[in-house]
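Entry 14. Two folds queued back to back today. First construct below, sequence then structure tokens.
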Amino acid sequence: MTRSATIRRTEKLGSGTYPFYPLVLNHRQGTLDMKYCLSVFVLALALVAPTAFAHDYSHGPVTVDHPWSRPTPPGTPMGVGYMSISNSGSSDITLVGAATPRAGNVSIHETSMHDGVMRMAPVKGGLAIPAGTTVELKPHSFHLMLEKLKSPLREGESIPLTLTFEGADEMQVELNVESLDGEMMKSESMDHSGKSMDHSGH
């Protein structure tokens, strides 16, 4: 008759200590209970996943977090670029430009609401990132416009992008092209179509 014992033990994964999980040892075969193995595997995967899929770039005082874009339908001439840019230094810096081989031009824009009308205009002089702050490029706010796209941006792609700063070194990042739900698709369309947007600031 095979004899088994349940041992309570703590799993230590990475830098943290995690709750007890039952470890069942088969004294004859020295094997681990399958349920325990699966539990540890799932826990380890959950702990590792955020790190494995982290999407940020750092150079000097500048950190660019989660640069991303949206898929574009065939024939659409423009795409967008979003990200957070942090300046941990003691001096102000300015994002003055960007470039990608996937577009003829990249410019910095701001979307804002005025008297119920959504307007988009270029950010003159570049986007300032004061010392010790983070500036977000996000929908309905600051963003990059990828103009004269050479091919559609497809979900799952990574788009190479060069960011040029005044007061900091140039950085190479990649925009992850992420899925778009229906409501966001409508909103994005309004942000970048001539019919729903006042482009008088251009």
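Second construct, same run, same settings:
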Amino acid sequence: MAGPTQKELAQAALARIEAHEALCLERFSNIERRLDSGAKNFEKLERMIFGLYALVLGSVLVPFLLSMG
């Protein structure tokens, strides 16, 4: 009894490759979504840090300016 033909092997390989590509596409989509979510979190942290800069600068400058007047 003969084994699978070249055509059958090629079709099986193609089916496995297509399944692998579909799985990779799903994984890539999940990674992309998580990266976008992380970028939004970093933007929020950046705004908080800039607010903290303003608070620190204000807490240093206000007493200094009040002591001058």
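Quick look at the second one. The CA atoms of residues 7 and 13 lie 10 Å apart. The two ends are 103 Å apart (CA to CA).
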